[in-house]
Amino acid sequence: MDGKWWLSVVVIFVVLILAESEETIIDFEFPSPSERIKIRRPAHLVDEAYIAKYTEAVDRMRRLPPDHPHNFIRQANMHCIYCTGAYNQANSSALLKIHRSWFFFPWHRIFIYFHERILGKLIGDETFALPFWNWDSPEGMVIPGFYMNSSLNDVDRDLGHLPPEVTDINFDYVESGLSPEAQVSSNLAFMYNQMVSGARKPELFIGCPSRAGEDGACDGPGTIELAPHNALHTWVGSAGQPEREDLGAFYSAARDPIFYAHHANIDRLWTVWEDLHGGRGVAGGEFLNDPDWLDSHFYFHDENTRLVRVRVRDCLDMSKLRYRYEEVKHPWLNAKPKPTNPPSAARNTLRRSIDFGPTGRTLDATLRTSVRRPRPHRTKKEMEKEEEVLVVHGIDIKKDMYVKFDVYVNAVDEARTLEYGPEAREFAGTFVNVRHGVRLVRREGDSQMKTKSTLKLGISELLADLEADEDESILVTIVPRGGTGVNTTVDGVRIEYMK
């Protein structure tokens, strides 16, 4: 029997049991302010005593009965439940998912929060804290060695990406061929774009607002979710498995213990981004006053096996959750890319707009189009308050598959610019779709509700660096990667302004 099919049935069964459960649901309460704060350390810096303790905790979790809420596979299935559409929601035919919208960061934060507390409970250590995989710093750009052993190992990983291979945080199913030093340099430049210049507004970083009802559905991931998050999922997953299981497909991702260190770093970068943009209140902007976000809720079993309802508003303050991250340096802050061509060259290049047509353009080859800028002569005050955003809209992926494409602005010497990749200032961002790996389950008569994806890239700083901030139009190049665009269409490209 196919293992994935079996897992799908288990997930559906578990969810139906949860939905019909007679368990009492309680509202989440913050831990006591007197509780000692847990400190999450970089995985490459933890000592042997910590590794032994962590290994024992996961081993005990694996040995729990399969129907126990704290069982390791049961924990992994929670991720599958919330992100694959593996069961039918009551009163809705929409796909339940916590990826590709503003739920991505808070859901994963509280998921690993409970996972961490359960591990501590299993070994009787209230101070236990998960490590984070510090893949955005050169010292951490390798799979931490202790994840290769005992209960922390996973046999379904790419054999060519095991230590000491340097991670490719912008992986596109094709090996980069870069030397370790060059790969580190590329990673740092990519992080600058994803954390700084491409993510100056909450929606660009956190993801689109997803609201109740068919009209409120959205599919617009933030920068970090697209990559390194998605890209590293696929980089770690096994090339020998049909969907790069375990980490490379959402249904199986949390079966690999490194999932939790990966997401701990994602969670840490959320706090770093907030600090870079003026603190939590400033960075959250309108999101922090939006009840559709703040009052949305999820269900988990806590460390005491109680069924708990957690709202997004409960997930926003780490100090109240009694954990923090050890301070580390952020070398990508000094890795701002440079133009690969003289900015003036772009103004002398003949451009034309392509017709995307009523059904969009298939990404089976590189697309190049001129895009008009509606407001090329904004005032200084306007430029301070609003971000210019390049929008690739109507991204339609025809089947459950991995898709990646990169976007460049004013790449007039295309071959040279693409060779530099994220280290070229012309690089605006990337789109990455990870396989769900589980067939959607629908009742007879349910409508086939499908939302096309939207990619929004902040380009104000990029345009200034390319001396194109007063140009009437820009040249946009969309480059499909790894042959993944053959089943993907795009409806068009436009410019918007985001306050």
Low-confidence stretches: 1-20
What shape does the CA trace take? globular
Q: What class, by secondary structure content?
A: alpha+beta
Relative strand content: 15-25%
Average residue pLDDT: 88
Domain Tyrosinase copper-binding: 256-267
Region (Disordered): 358-385
Signal peptide: 1-21
InterPro entries: Di-copper_centre_dom_sf (IPR008922), Polyphenol_oxidase_C (IPR022740), Polyphenol_oxidase_cen (IPR022739), Tyrosinase/Hemocyanin (IPR050316), Tyrosinase_Cu-bd (IPR002227)
Description:
The protein is of the alpha+beta class and 499 residues long. Helices cover 31% and strands 15% of the residues. The chain is built from 15 helices and 14 strands. The strands form four sheets. Strands 6, 8, 11, 13 and 14 form a five-stranded antiparallel beta sheet that branches. A four-stranded antiparallel beta sheet has the order 7-12-9-10. Strands 1-4-3 form a three-stranded mixed beta sheet, covered by helices on one side. β3 and β4 (307-311) form a beta hairpin. α1 packs across α3 (72-83) and α4 (104-122) crosses α8 (258-276). Residues 1-20 have low confidence and may be disordered.
